[in-house]
Amino acid sequence: MWQLAQNITFVHPEILWLLAVLPLLAGWYYRKYKRRYPVLTLSNLQILQHTSSLRGSLRSLLPVMRILALATLIVALARPQQTLKEEEIKAEGIDIALVMDLSSSMLAQDFQPDRLEVSKRVAADFIDKRPYDRIALSVFSGEAFTQCPLTTDHAVVKSFLAELECGLLEDGTAIGMGLATSVNRLKDSDAKSKVIILLTDGVNNAGYIKPLTAAEIAKEFDIKVYTIGVGSAGEALTPVSRRSDGRYIYGLARVEIDEELLNTIATSTGGKYFRATSAESLEAIYAEIDQLEKTEMEITSIKRYSEEFRAFAWYGLLLILLELLLRYTVLRTIP
Q: What integer pLDDT is reported at residue 296 of this predicted model?
């Protein structure tokens, strides 16, 4: 859009070139007027000193009114707008991939109601705190896939996050597959900072990509990995088998998390390993990651406009109607 004056812009500025035609039109009107009303040459104008009338003066204004009407309509067609708000702000924005474990052990009830529901809620709160980030969501159990690619539409990410449930994939814990899937989503990103937050509650026991191999790939693409081990110490009420109708049978089972592996993955990529033994500690972990990952970027806020073309259109139509009314009533001439 082309700026005419402070806070005034045009959506279709090319239409304003039609204003250049108006002087030509004014010249055409003038020549037409001179031909229709020829000049009478007299030797002495004294007898005509007081013959001018208001009606004659107004008639000469009719072409001017038409030109002005066309000018205002051309401006209206160019669609003038007034900028109501435009503000440049500083904000943090990075690319983040959330990787969520969906193995059946995530239904353990040492978190209330279970590890998965708490992890989903805390992750959603974390997303709300990162309004300028692009966020992706990947999941894994015995296999892995991308639930949502990188996007700034956080409502979509949270919608996918809310729908996550155990049993969607083959059971198991393929940490390497989950990490590799998220790396694949971030590797082509041009963001200055790329981060993966991998959350799991178990030991790698599935998948054809080793976790440390996936970590090496992440490091190669300058992707930082934060790992979170979820689960209380000791034993927890955990799914131990499944009925024919799909419902889980719960029993006490020892909480086993490969903390050494998760710590190696994190430190090798410049990240950090965290252990969450409660909902509160998980919230604190996401809060710490939120503080650790701050990248300043400049963002121009969305502009708000008010449409100003209506006033020009009404003025143009009013001038045309007034000109026609005067031309064919009060100022009418007989050919």
A: 60
